[in-house]
Amino acid sequence: MDAAQQEATARARELQRNWYGEPLGALFRRLIDDLGLNQARLAGVLGLSAPMLSQLMSGQRAKIGNPAVVQRVQLLQDLAGQVADGSVSAAEATERMDEIKKSQGGSVLSNTTTTTSSSGAPTVKRVVREIQSLLRSVAAAGDIIEAADALSSSHPELAEFLRVYGAGRTSDAVAHYQSHQN
To answer: Where is the composition biased (Low complexity) (predicted)?
Structure first.
């Protein structure tokens, strides 16, 4: 890879960090690990070709052009969090992935099944993911940890917040959020 290609890849990964909260390679590898998939299966669930998934993961392409695919990525992230916190079994996850694969997408904001509870209030997980997304759009996880370390002696609660939401797992952030309500 020559210098121009390296620069283009670095720029694509930075754009991905701004758009999706992290480079897609890291996001997709986590989904693969958390959901027990391989790249071909992930591509199939998302509705991408295997070469397109590979290009997004490697930074040869920066953006997912199809909004339905972006929504499927969000649904898979939610599913991976549910598997991680034990609220969804591996068998249920496989069924849900088949449903996600068949979903036609649409506006993420109008998909009330993932954004709100039956009462119409945002779900805790949704609120936590919005906080995580906001923090991760501002700085990389390493920078957030560095800032938390700098604050830890004078503002330990704020440092904990940064660590949990800026660089931690969604399940830990949900637990933190719930423990600080009331």
So the answer is: 107-119
